[in-house]
């Protein structure tokens, strides 16, 4: 299976969906988490989100492009719905992490002594 063929929609949907979007996503996320933890330490969630989201967008583009290469229109529509739902979910997670890590620190809960 060629990465370029998948990007241009020339592969079968089943190959691209299962190898890139399902298995590849899990393997890439695990490898990225280990890489970020070893190289940068444990407080780099935004970097990990960027890496995983980038891979997810790429694999989503490949699945979308190859969705027509199936025997059933049902699988074409299902694959595209899965891509939209998953990318929406990742966008929400990334937004949550960006909002959390870029928020100004608060002094709520701190006891001030004189």
Descriptive notes:
By secondary structure, the protein is mostly helical. It has one domain. It is built from 4 helices and no strands. The protein has helices at 3-7, 13-40, 45-66, 73-102. Helix 2 (13-40) packs antiparallel against helix 3 and helix 3 packs antiparallel against helix 4 (73-102). The radius of gyration is 19 Å and the shape is elongated. It starts with a helix and ends in a 12-residue tail after the last helix.
Low-confidence stretches: none
Number of helices: 4
Instruction: Write down the overall geometry.
Output: elongated
- The SSE order reads HHHH
**Secondary structure category:** mainly alpha
Fraction of residues in β-strands: under 5%
- The average pLDDT is 86
For the secondary structure, the number of strands is 0
Helix fraction, binned, reads over 70%
Biggest pleated-sheet summary: none
> What Rg do the Cα atoms give?
19 Å
Strand and helix layout:
Blueprint: H1 3-7, H2 13-40, H3 45-66, H4 73-102
